Amino acid sequence: MQQTILAIAGKPGLYKLVTRGNNNLIVEALDATHKRMPAFATDRITSLSDIAMFTETDDIPLMDVFENLKNLEGGKKASINEKKASGEELRAYFSKVLPNWDQDRVQNSHIKKLITWYNILVEAGITDFKDPEPEPEPEQKNPAE
């Protein structure tokens, strides 16, 4: 899932990779329109799995932040209106989601975008933010023993 959900610079919202063309990708909007369109190499396309949030220690993958947000909200849309909330309200809310976030490098616009993306994913029915851990293979016993 993480590899196929894309953000395209200059275009609002999130997109799902549908297929690859000769010189482009065909993407579908995750909003209610489900509009399909080409995305070209000149567009700055980023997979959500390649995005991380700054913290005081290490950078945290965006999917982990989404998982924290999902746990905080019980799998529902965010309880804060990111468009109307003040900067202080956004920062206080984000402190509940990611307590050790880097308050110098993370801007209010980053928090707004993160909440908007989370809401888009929840509305689209995508709430499995972490890929399942591969189960360890059972050890093979040597029949000669």
Describe it.
- The protein starts with a strand and ends in a 22-residue tail after the last helix.
- It is 27% helix and 19% strand.
- The protein has a 5-stranded antiparallel sheet, with no helix packed on it.
- With 145 residues, it is α+β, with helices and mostly antiparallel strands.
- The model has no long low-confidence stretch (mean pLDDT 87).
- The longest helix has 16 residues, at 108-123.
- The chain has helices at residues 62-73, 87-97, 108-123; strands at 5-8, 15-20, 24-29, 36-40, 45-47, 52-53, 60-61.
Provide the fold topology:
Elements (H helix, E strand, L loop, with lengths): L4 E4 L6 E6 L3 E6 L6 E5 L4 E3 L4 E2 L6 E2 H12 L13 H11 L10 H16 L22
Antiparallel strand pairs: 1-2, 1-5, 2-3, 3-4, 6-7
Number of helices: 3
Task: Return the string of H and E elements.
Answer: EEEEEEEHHH
Question: What sort of overall outline do the alpha carbons produce when their principal axes are compared?
Answer: globular
How many strand elements?
Answer: 7
Strand order of the largest sheet: 4-3-2-1-5
Average pLDDT, all residues: 87
Radius of gyration: 18 Å
N/C terminus separation: 43 Å
Question: Roughly how much helix do the residues carry, as a percent range?
Answer: 25-40%
> Uncertain regions: pLDDT < 50 for 5+ in a row?
none
